[in-house]
Design brief:
2 domains; about 75% helix; about 450 residues; Na+/H+ antiporter like fold; homodimer; mainly alpha
Chain lengths: ~450, ~450
């Protein structure tokens, strides 16, 4: 009989992995609350504080939360050295525990942004989104074309960067972090305003465009030519997925409610809804789209049901627990060391970074002026809302780095651009929305959006 | 400048790990709902259905959810072979993804049982628990001594098992799965009855005793003698932890409420409470107690605050999402193959298993008759509530197996005993509680306990 309980490193180190995850989560929640509350007192969006809180415990400062993807070893992690001391572990054990713990936290962070987009989908309205669909599409396309062209041409002309790395940098400029923007909009109670819906719609379309651009650029860097079949497959599957979700929204609703009504055990509404969100996320990820797009689509579909409010209230605590993991780890992964001008190696990168930052802001802000037929709309806010590159920009930089196409200064410059747009966008967006009467389809919905900033428990 | 975005296997396989986790979670939720609902229709505790649902997708049947700790390879996992086909991956990549995905699911399951015990703590009452404290302590001690003595002596006398493995088997018989018992009690609305509080109290004490026994037995198997210092340290730290929690319950409450009241961002109550639960779980785990004991203590402490109801309502959706992962994976890990009498190797084990099962049931059921000063108490229910060995019993068997002390038939017998007590306990407990008027301290509290079986949203 084969042993049923063979000991593997996994089993032996399991208690330490759990302790490592628990310690990381405790740090994440402490920093997210400290940062968020401080930000709120300073009249800034709380999410900015969560990002800064992440920076403090991350690779830039305290080294409590670091990740092997960024080249960190277990010995770089203050948390791991503490655990090594607590558990009297050898170096090999700590390396194993570090990898496992980091993978768990990374997946929890991804589940966090999945739940965030599910919640944003639940708070968005398919019909309202449809009404601003054309505008959102134009904003997205201009927000891709403008920074890409300006960035690529500028790098080649002014900085004599070769064409392939210039295209990579240009591609990184096209991204929009839907997570950061939608979180700020939600915190400010502007998610349901016309501006908010245009930004969210454009960010979704931007995400799809970004995935297509990434596929083009990656195959260009790898083989020197574009894999057309792959690109066509991506475009077709992305379109089919988005249209399919909208159709599903019309038909699946009622059967979902019927199923949920029949269930008698705990979590009768939440568990099927959450399963549906994960299934859509999984489907999106299998057809090479981003998982968060699937979760957003699932939220849109379930928003059409009459269980919406009840579901919203039950998803909220889950978001409260999972979403901070995402924002704090984004902050923890941002290496602000590349911003230090006293390090000679950084200087070349910082000059390019300054150029990329200008392009990154201008290229997105102009999109606000492409909106037509909406007199009185806050064009600046729409443009500013598209600025944060966030994790999407880092993915571009990461793939560029892996392909070996990027020089060290250019890579650093892209990272600086991503970090600065991510951290500048929340206060800029708040500023551009301040003292404005938002154009909201329904006044009652707008109020609810503002309440979303505090837990609603009746 | 060191590359900030070096590609490691972790980064390269990350999307597949996420897809693997999402697929596993989808299967977990489908099986937990299918099993739970079917169980409910058959008038059985839903948790039994979740366990059986786990068995169906686990190592015993469909091989969708299997774990490397139990000796499974990536090629044994139907989910991994599907992912390999979807992503066109090589064997090495799949092995890496399998390990990562399993670690993530294992940690999520552990977070599930941590949240479950936090919730049970929130629903328990420190004063009520104090009132039954002596009874619970006696039930726990008898429930450890009786099965240990009967089992060890019986194995030596009737089956001529050497003394060290006999002691291991005896130790595995002492465990009580607080998770399974408290979930069934909560589902039946009996958590707050006197019987329920005695069972929960005894299970907590049993857990502490179990950890001490485990330390004794493990050092006995390793060095042939007992490491007295270690045992004394464990007893002192366990006692200090439990008494410290109770003291904390009296003083920390008010400062906790004051902090939560001052917070203005989302999750103002939930995030500090959850952080406290994780910190207590972490502390328990660092001093070599079980993490779930810390979470239970945290629940007890916060139960004393006037935020109790609000918190309870916000913890519920998190429990709905995380707890099923625990029960379904417990089922998935249970290898029912050892029950098959047509396999000749199993027969020797099955005879010992039958003996262990009788000892396991009798040794716990007798504990009900040790209760004094509570006329009219359901003694049978208390005894039956202590029967399930669950994950705690498997930990004993696993450590015994790792030490090399157990023969294959004895190891199989222990596993059979653990599986059968775990699966038999929920229906037996329901049966023994049926048609009884429970003795409840406050009638209103009991009603609330019953409502806990359905999501409470007002």
């Amino acid at each position: 009989m084969p042993s049923l309980l063979a000991t593997t490193p996994e089993a032996e180190y399991a208690p330490f992995v759990l302790t490592g995850v628990l310690l990381t989560l405790i740090i994440v929640y402490l920093m997210s609350k400290l940062g968020g509350e401080l930000s709120k007192r300073l009249d800034l969006p709380p999410v900015l504080g969560e990002l800064v809180g992440g920076v403090i415990v991350g690779v830039s400062a305290l080294h409590l939360i670091v990740f092997p993807e960024a080249g960190a070893a277990a010995t770089d992690s203050l948390l791991m050295t503490t655990l090594q001391w607590l558990g009297d572990l050898d170096a090999e054990a700590v390396a194993h525990i570090f990898t496992s713990q980091s993978e768990v936290i990374s997946v929890l962070a991804e589940l966090g942004v999945i739940v965030l987009l599910f919640e944003i989908g639940l708070e968005s309205d398919l019909r309202e989104l449809g009404k601003v669909g054309y505008q959102a599409a134009i904003v997205a396309v201009v927000g891709v074309v403008a920074p890409f062209t300006l960035g690529t041409v500028g790098l080649v002309v002014f900085f004599h960067v070769p064409i392939i790395p210039a295209i990579f940098a240009g591609a990184a400029l096209t991204a929009t972090s839907i997570g950061i923007t939608s979180k700020v909009l939600s915190e400010l109670g502007h998610l349901k305003s016309t501006e908010g819906q245009i930004i969210v719609g454009a960010a979704v379309i931007d995400d799809v465009l970004g995935i297509i651009i990434l596929a083009v650029v990656a195959s260009l860097a790898k083989t020197g030519e574009v894999d057309l079949v792959n690109v066509v497959v991506l475009i077709v599957s992305a379109t089919a997925f988005l249209l399919g979700s909208i159709l599903l929204g019309k038909f699946f609703n009622q059967s979902f409610v019927a199923i949920a009504d029949k269930l008698q055990t705990r979590g009768a509404l939440l568990v099927p809804a959450f399963t549906f969100a994960l299934a859509m996320a999984c489907l999106a990820s299998v057809i090479h789209l981003e998982a968060i797009l699937g979760a957003f689509a699932a939220g849109l579909v379930l928003d059409e049901t009459d269980k919406r409010k009840e579901l919203d209230q039950q998803v909220m605590p889950i978001a409260d627990i999972l979403v901070p993991i995402f924002f704090v780890t984004v902050g923890a992964k941002a290496n602000l060391g590349v911003l230090n001008p006293t390090v000679p190696e950084n200087r070349a990168g910082l000059v390019i970074a300054a150029f990329l930052l200008v392009v990154a802001i201008v290229g997105k802000v102009v999109t606000g002026w492409t909106i037509f037929g909406k007199p009185g709309i806050n064009r600046l806010a729409v443009g500013v809302g598209m600025i944060p590159r966030g994790e999407v920009g880092l993915v571009f930089a990461g793939i560029g780095s892996a392909s070996g196409a990027l020089s060290a200064p250019l890579e650093a410059a892209i990272i600086v651009m991503v970090i600065l747009t991510t951290f500048l966008a929340p206060p800029l967006l708040q500023l551009s929305l301040k003292n404005q009467e938002s154009i909201t389809p329904e006044e009652s919905d707008s109020e609810e959006g503002e309440n979303a900033a505090v837990p609603v428990v009746k």
